[in-house]
Structures are given as C-alpha cells and as structure tokens.
Automatic annotation (TrEMBL):
InterPro entries: DUF445. Residues 1-64 are annotated as: Disordered. It comes from the Bacteria. The chain crosses the membrane at residues 78-97, 109-131. Residues 46-58 have a biased composition (Low complexity). This is Membrane protein. Keywords: Membrane, Transmembrane, Transmembrane helix. It holds the Pfam family DUF445. One of its GO terms (cellular component) is plasma membrane. The keyword Membrane applies.
Amino acid sequence: MERAKEDETGEEGETGTEGQSSWPGGVANRPGGVANPTSADRTRTGTRAGTRTPPNRAMNSFSPADEEKLRGVRRMKLTATGLLLLVAVVYVLAKWAGNSGAGAWTGYVAAAAEAGMVGALADWFAVTALFRRPMGLPIPHTAIIPTKKDQLGVSLGEFVGENFLSQDVVRQRLRAVGIGSRLGAWLGDPEHADRVTAELATALRGALAVLRDSDVQAVVGEAINRRADAQEIAPGIGKTLEKVVADGGHRRVVDLICVRAHDWLVLHNEQVMDAVQGGAPGWTPRFVDKRVGERVYKELLRFITEMRDMPAHPARGALDRFLTDFASDLQSDTDTRARVENLKREVLGRGEVQDLIASAWSSVRQMIVSAAEDERSELRLRVRASLLSLGARMATDPKLQAKVDGWVEGAAVYVVTTYRDEITSLITDTVAGWDAEHTSRKIEAHIGRDLQFIRINGTVVGSLAGLLIYTVSRALGA
C-alpha cells in the first residue's frame, strides 16, 4: 500500500522546466522511456517525409495558465489517491473486524473496498498509460501520447481533411451561413459602406504608390502600340469621314479656314505680292512683275472672299467631292490604306507621342489619388452609393444572393480541394515538430483534471459493483 501511495503521488512529478518525474526509475531515466529521447529520436520525431520540422514553441513551453492547470491536476490526483488510500484502509479494517468476529457485515464492507481498490488501480493504470509508462515498466501499449504522437498527428490531419475539408461539408456549411444576405445587410449599413469605401481608397492609393511611373508608361505604351498594330485605322477613319461629309459636319471647318485665310491675306498682302514677284523670270521688267503680283493677290483674295461668303461656291462642292472620294479610298484603296498605316506607325513611334502618354498617366494618377483622398470627391461618393445599392440588392434579391453564395462556395471549394493536402500537412508537420515530453505534459495539463475523475469514478463504481457481486453471491449461496 505504501508503494501504491508512492506511485500515485509520484505520478505528479515536478513543475520545473525539465519536466522530470519523481517515479522510481522516472520518466527521465526509465528504460525505453521517451521523456529525454536521443538525438536520433528527436530527429525522427521532428521529421516527416524527409523534412526536418522546427519545434513548435507553443507546445514546448509552459505559460502561467498551463502551470495553474497543472496545479489543478495535482490536486485532483491527490484527491483520487486519497480515495484509493481510504478504501484500502477500509478494506484492512473490515478484514481485521471480520477476523475479530464483528459480524457478517464486515464481509460486505471488505468486498466493496476490495473492488474499489481494483477499480481505482485499473483506472490509474489506464490514465497513466496515456502519458507515460506506469512505474517505468516497458509495458506494451503504454505511454501512448509520447510514442504515438506522430501517428496521432497524421490521423488528426486525415480526420480534419475528410470531415471538415470535403467539398460537400464546405458547401453545406457556407450555404447554411447565407453569406450573400448577410453581406448585403452589412454593406447596406451606411457606416459599413463608409468603412469599405475608405479601405478601398487606402488600397487604391497604396497600389498607385507602389507602381512605378516608368513601368506603367511602358505597359500603357506597349498596349497602345499593340492595339494600334492589331487594328487597321484607315477603314474606321474613312467611315467616320464619309458620315461627317454626308451630314455636312465639315462645313464649319471649311468656313473657319476660309475666314482665317481671308484675314491672313489681308494682313500679309505685301508678303504675298513679294512672293509672286520673286518667282518671276529675271528678264521681265520690274513694273510688269509688280502688276502681275498685284493681279494674283487680288484674284486670290477675291476667290477666298467668294468661297467664304458663298455656301454654294463651286470650290466648296469640289472640296466635298474630294473628301467623299478620300473617304472611299480610305475604306477600299489598298495604297491609301497602306500609307495611312505607315503614317500611324511613324506618329506612334515619335518621342513626342510617348511623352504625351507619360504625361497623361501622371495626370490620371494624380487625379485618382486626389479623388481617393477627398472624402467628398465624386469618385468616393459614387463608390459609396454603389456599395449601398449593392448591399440593398443583395439583402433583398434572392437571385443575387444565390449568385454571391455560389461564387463564395466555388472559391472556398477550390481552395479546399486544391490545397487540402497542404492544410492537413500543416497539422501533421506541426504535431511532428512537438517535443514528446512537453506535448504529454501540456495535454495532461489541459485534460488531466477530468481524467482524474475517471479514477474517482472507478473507485466508487468498483466498490458498488463489488458490493453487488458479493451480495448476489451470498444470496445465491444461502
């Protein structure tokens, strides 16, 4: 009985960081124990599929809360051990009283106490075998948690993968949550819409700050050039020009050109006459050259004036026919279309055009950043209004709710089915990286107090069972 008491109380061990046990031949020294594994054992414990897994600090250290739980476990162990000692004392006294002729009742008490001791010792063995080898003996199927830690981790990973990360379970759970309606009700709240708008604005500013202007300009320029090369512009220009001429939209442009040309001729009459005189032959008299220059200037001014003032001027009709023919050539003439394409490439390749693209991006970025920072900007107000509208629709429209739920379910199922092995391996690798001794002690700290009730219940139930069996036996024997 003293040895039983010693075993019971020694099971508690010390609370130091070494986690040593006071058992004879305790955890640290027992043959075949796993408390202080060798380097090979540690490598095997922390290795899965050939990969060394670093120890998990949370399972290899004890917090003040863990220490408090361990103290609770020790108190319950003392209670269970005290109950065992109590029934042992009752058994000894009942036997002594029976031998002294106290009466038949002593047999009932002794039978109950004896069965209570058997139940208490059996449950002590079962509880102890979970965490260590009872009394340090290499009994098979003991120290289950330290020796089977990796297998338990694999089993736990498989259990989680099969029962929590399956496609049907994920869909059923998400469908029951009703994310679409909940998200709609949440977005429909103005405060939440303001919060989402602010977060989106912050994210937009951050994204624009991360992007380098040179990279964006290169991407935009390359996209414009690729799109321009992929699509011929001459037919489109031809169709547009044809419609403009048919609708008379070009006449205002012709009016403007005629007005500006007339004003220019009036202001630069001397330059025009000098240009005409300069082109005359050297052998003609100067007064003749002057008269010819004046005549050419007057005719040119008259022609421009008449074209400006006469909407039905023949030159305007000729211009209309020219533009109509040019629009047709842009759509059907191979040579004209090829020239336009060459001109397009030359224009896009010029540095001025690329600088224009760069300046346009800088302006657009600054405009977006300013709008994102201003809470009353049109951009943020429209985003907020769109979020509120979307939230209201999602909260009341079953079809939209079903679409959102389907998108969320599809995304979740894709993640689960694609990365299930990685998720479960996180469990198995983490468990494999735990130190066996600390794992046992930490698990015992969390569930050991409840396990001690098994010992107490075993003592009580064993006593009652022993009493019943003894009573039935005496009744049948009588």
